[in-house]
Amino acid sequence: MYRRVFETAELGRKLSKDEYKEQVPLLRTELLTLQRQLEKADFPVIILLGGVDGSGRGDVLNLLNEWMDARGINTVAFDAPTEEERHRPPYWRYWMALPPKGRIALMTSAWYTTPVVDRAYGRTDDSDLDASLQRIGAFEKTLVDEGALLIKLWLHISKERQRKRLKKLEKNPRTRWRVGDRDWKHAKLYDEFRRISERTLRATSTGEAPWFVIESANARYRDVTVAQQIAERLKERLQKKEKSTAPRPLDPIPDPDTILDTLDLGAKLEKTDYNARLDDLQASLNGLSQWARDKKVGVTLVFEGWDASGKGGAIRRIIQALDARDYRAIPVAAPTEEERAQHYLWRFWRHLPRLGRFTLYDRSWYGRVLVERVEGLARPDAWMRAYKEINDFEEQLVAHGIVLVKYWLHISREEQMKRFEERERTPWKQHKITEEDYRNREKANLYEAAANDMIERTSTEYAPWTLVPAEDKRFARVMVLETICERLRAAID
Amino acid sequence: MYRRVFETAELGRKLSKDEYKEQVPLLRTELLTLQRQLEKADFPVIILLGGVDGSGRGDVLNLLNEWMDARGINTVAFDAPTEEERHRPPYWRYWMALPPKGRIALMTSAWYTTPVVDRAYGRTDDSDLDASLQRIGAFEKTLVDEGALLIKLWLHISKERQRKRLKKLEKNPRTRWRVGDRDWKHAKLYDEFRRISERTLRATSTGEAPWFVIESANARYRDVTVAQQIAERLKERLQKKEKSTAPRPLDPIPDPDTILDTLDLGAKLEKTDYNARLDDLQASLNGLSQWARDKKVGVTLVFEGWDASGKGGAIRRIIQALDARDYRAIPVAAPTEEERAQHYLWRFWRHLPRLGRFTLYDRSWYGRVLVERVEGLARPDAWMRAYKEINDFEEQLVAHGIVLVKYWLHISREEQMKRFEERERTPWKQHKITEEDYRNREKANLYEAAANDMIERTSTEYAPWTLVPAEDKRFARVMVLETICERLRAAID
Lengths: 493, 493
Fold this sequence. Notes:
Two copies of one chain form a homodimer. Chain A has helices spanning about 15-40, 55-65, 85, 90-95, 115-120, 125-145, 160-170, 180-190, 190-205, 220-240, 270-295, 310-320, 335-340, 345-350, 370-375, 380-400, 415-425, 435-440, 445-460, 475-490, and strands at about 1-5, 45-50, 75, 105-110, 150-155, 210-215, 300-305, 325-330, 360, 400-410, 465-470. The first copy, chain A, is α/β, with parallel strands linked by helices.
């Protein structure tokens, strides 16, 4: 139910042979043109390909050398340190692999390998990992500060996909040699690698050098997306004079699949079932809220989702179960004048409740990476940086003893239109619908891409997103209540 | 002999009453004018006053409120958290104290207090401290990224000074109340506080939000310097359009005292003493170098100092004691074309020797914060950032098993001129003297300020600076040899 970082890269995105054949020649021409321009530019480019075994990092490496002019590329694969390398500090070999201005270095995981693998094999603990990630942060910062363009792409495949691929390689006598004990050992540690990779990506996705996760189950989709991301980033950088804008994710291509499309919008609940479930859940929640008050556990609920997706209704079903002294519902609108004179997170810090209370946010700090991103109210460097700032903020809440539950309520565009029309017809609901709501609809694709990126970059182990199919209001309300009861019970344990 | 961070703030800098009376009215007028301009600006200002007890943070707080328009200043002193505050995450109260755009918040140590005090009392260990410092880094980064001007001033007094002040306060019946048990307890922990503060300042001095250490033994000097630093920083920021330039240290005022002036340039060694000492030391060094080779300990020696201060001569006395296979002397000149196409640290990484060897740098990576700073070859944001980059670099060397010794060879300007003239007269030394050497002399004050800042910001516990009085060449050479032998012996233990 809860969504985690890599799920946005397990959507089954693919590209047909025809689409691939159509796009590749254009992409290759663009890459070569950009490479020509880069030769005269005064910055180096470092492309890092991270990802699990079997995601095809090696294939992509070879392909990029084929698609681009290999003479302008240093391709570097790091193996176990040589004797020469062991005589120097660990980062020496990475420094030596850095490209000069005007050139590209193409590397697989590089400085990420040792920290991640050591942690997965239990040779280090989480705090060692964090120290390594801090070292990585300082290293990448000095490269970027001195002008380097750092493109970090993470190729992701699912556990199932990884196993299938290994088995297939083993079956074929001509590829059997590619599968070693180490591969199977790594495969067994898939879940552990995934957890560590999440932590790693989160800690090292900065505004200036963010990771982009690329779904890699389908090789054609993977190759084209990698090449497009590189082309976009190069173009962005070559065009701009000052380096104040940060990289931004691509709009999903070629098919706008997002994690939201994976939800089963057919999920429904009949009225009688609903009434019974609602009564039960509200009774449970009331009991849990008394426990929370006694134990001084704070509960913060964040509601995001489409206009008319039923956020208000879900919130009302929760507060019906609470004592009025125990909660505060905060509708988040445009910031006041006083708030605009402060850091964008300030107004959320400001309203943090005492422990032992419920706080329900109808829209939230995520406005930064949703409406402000889509409407151009925040610059790309500001909203790109915000993912990390928000993760830091939420980490502090959770560390302080707050249970943080984040909901995205999802409905189809057809259902949304139906609800808009219904609001227009209902006198006491007319105030809820404005011209702006219709305008937002036109940007639905952009909002959806923004929501997808948000879920990818802010689904943390301490504050995962819960995606709620809200086409049926009853189903959605019950799911929202169930989730909060579950999370509170988990907090009791 | 080795220099540590705070020694540059124990030089006895002071201001006479007359100087003070002359400067204060001008400063106050300037501060008020800047404050008027700030009201219309779109950024907030946060002034942090850190420092040990007794350095006068409270007095400075009051004074600034008097000198500036107190209506534009939120003065915040943080005590033990209130009940309201304990109900929120620790940073809540800092967020609530942030000023809106156009205003100033004036705080004492704020978010630095708990990490430093907890560590000093042994309630946490170094890795807890590092985690707290990382949290501070993320917090300050988001403030600065969103446009805040963060001015961090550290008021320093020596241990002796602190004790004297406490005793004086205790003696006077009217001020006795100001001295509590806690003050004496802290005073006993002075050395521990100092070590922790060093670590704290190093970790949190970033290019965008560096600490400036202010010598605070003399109240007049302290007050004027604090006010000047604030005025400078405000002016800098109000004048610039884009926020790409970083804050820079003030040229020492009003009297250009630097740490270099504390050296006893009268130190001398007679020729016979010298010859005997030299023989002994070279024999010791030779033995130690064999140990280093066997144990695979790397030795890196950095020589910085004035032109004609005798760096080359000192280096020759060292390599005379070494097997030619065991060392490499690297004269650092302007970077080659290949090197200019890379990160400025790249050429030093490139020449890192294998372990078990000596590497002697005649000038070094410190060029970034010396000649490049003074000659305007690096922008202020680049050289300001470099202190941290260099500390990171050196930390990696030392962690890898390298003994790193850094020398600054110091001579008076008169002695330098004498040596220049001697070079001109000696046919085989003429090539060592150029027009440029004379031009550099004209900027001696700027170089001296740069050297002072460098020593302040890069004297770490793992790689302290050794300042060598080099007016007498014999004395200098012996001291250089003694130091390396000492450091190697310490490494053996």
